[in-house]
Amino acid sequence: MKAAVIGLGWWGKQIIKCLDDSQKITITHAYDPQIDRNDLIFSDFSVSSDQDFDAIIDNPDIDAVILATPNQFHESQVISAANKGKQVFCEKPVALKYESVKKMAQACQDNNVILGVGHERRWEPAMVRLKNMLDNNELGKILHMETNFSHDIFMKLDRSSWRLDPQYAPAGGMTALGIHLTDFFVSFLGPAEKIYAKTGSIALEHPQKDTLSVNIKFKNNISASLAVMISTPFYGRFNVFGENGWVEIREISNVDFDDPAEFIYCNKDGKRIVEQYDVVNTVKMNFEEWADAISGKSDYRIKIEEVISNVQILESIINASASDKVIEINQ
Q1: Where does the Gfo/Idh/MocA-like oxidoreductase N-terminal domain lie (predicted)?
Q2: What's the angle, vertex CA 286, arms to CA 283 and CA 288, rounded to 5?
Q3: Which of 13, 35, 126, 305 could form a disulfide with 277 if both were Cys (CB 3.0 to 4.6 A apart)?
Q4: Virtual CA dihedral for 60, 61, 63, 65, nearest 10 degrees?
Q5: Ranges of each domain in the chain
Q6: Which secondary structure element, helix H or strand E, spans residue 263, and what is its range?
C-alpha cells in the first residue's frame, strides 16, 4: 500500500522512520507547509515532496494518507481524504468533540474507509499481556483501574506551540498523553458514564495547564482514575485491581528509548510475579495491522466505536475541567 504522511513534526518524521522497512506500507509522499523541501527526511527516505495535501488526495497512485497534523485540522482532513476514496490513518486525538468524530466516522463508513488511529500503545507487549489476562478473567471481577503518564518533554517547546495552546490542546497533557490512557480504559471497560476532572497551572502560567487529574465511572459501574503532568520527568504506570489479584505495569522511559517495561502480577495468595517486556516497534505493528485490515487479511483491533467513546471521554474531561462539574455522557 502506498501512503503519504501529512505533517512532518517530530512524530510525522518518526512514523516515516518506523515504516522504513515495512513490507506492507511504502511512504511515497509527504507534505508539511512548515518544512523545507530540502529537509533530509525527503532524501534520506526517498520520499517525494512535490505535492500538497489537495494534490495528494487527488493522486490515484496514493492509496492512503497518514495525518500527523495539529488537532484542529483532523476533521476536515479525514473527511476530505475519505471522500476522495483514500484510506485514512489519523494521529490521536482523532477529534476534540463527539459531533466531530461522528462526522468523521460517517465519512469513513460512506466510503468504505478503515480509520487507523495512532494508539500504538495497544501493541506494547506488557499491555497485550494484561489484555489477555482480562479477556481470560484471570483477575476475576475488576474493581478499579488507575494510571499515570507524565513527561516534561513538552516544557522544552516554545510557549507559543499549539501543543501548549488550550484552544487546540486543552486539559493540559490530555491530548498528547492522557488520550492513550483513556484508550486503554475504553478497550478494557467499554464506554464511560460520568467524569470529573481538574487541571492546574503550577509550573506553567494560566491559561496553559500542566497538571490533570481525572475520575471516571464506566457504564459497567467500574471506576478508573488517571493523572497526567507535563512538568515532571518521565513517569509511566498502569494498575488494574481485581478480586483475584492485581497488575502493575511500569514504564522506565518514553517510546524513543529502548528500556523494557516491568510487569508485576500479584495473585490471590499475595504472591508477586515480576516479568520484563522488551520494546518492540509498536508504531509499525499498528500500521501493518491497519494495512492488513484494509486488504481483508485480518481485523483491526481499534474499533470505530471505541474511537468515538474515547473522544466522548476527552470532550467530557475538557468540559469537566473547565466547569468544575461532573459531566454525564448520555449519547
Answers
A1: 2-119
A2: 105
A3: 126
A4: -90
A5: 2-117, 121-328
A6: strand 261-267
CB 214 within 8 A of CB 196: yes
Pick from 65, 320, 52: nearest CA to 198: 320
CB 130 within 8 A of CB 247: yes
Task: Flag whether pLDDT at 256 surpasses 70.
Answer: no
- Helices 74-83, 98-110: axis angle to 10 degrees equals 10
CB 88 within 8 A of CB 78: yes
For residue 154, what pLDDT band results from cuts at 50, 70 and 90? confident
173, 150 in Cβ contact below 8 A?
A: yes
The helix or strand, by DSSP H or E, that contains position 242, with its residue range, turns out to be strand 235-242
Q: Which amino acid, one-letter code, is at 6?
A: I
Bridge partner residues of 89 (DSSP): 66, 116
Task: Write b or e for each residue in 90-127: b if 16 or more Cβ atoms lie within 10 A of its Cβ, otherwise e.
Answer: bbbbbbbbbebbebbbebbeebebbbbbbbbbbbbbbb
Grid cell locating 227: 493523572
What CATH number was assigned to the domain covering residues 121-328? 3.30.360.10
Mean pLDDT along residues 22-48: 97
Residue among 281, 291, 147, 274 nearest 223 (CA):
147
Residue type, 116: G
Q: One-letter amino acid identity for 136? A: N
Residue 18: Cβ within 10 Å count: 18
| Side-by-side strand order, sheet with 261-267 | 272-277, 261-267, 245-251, 235-242, 142-150, 223-229, 211-218, 192-200, 327-328
Average pLDDT for 96-121: 98
What is the average pLDDT across 180-205? 96
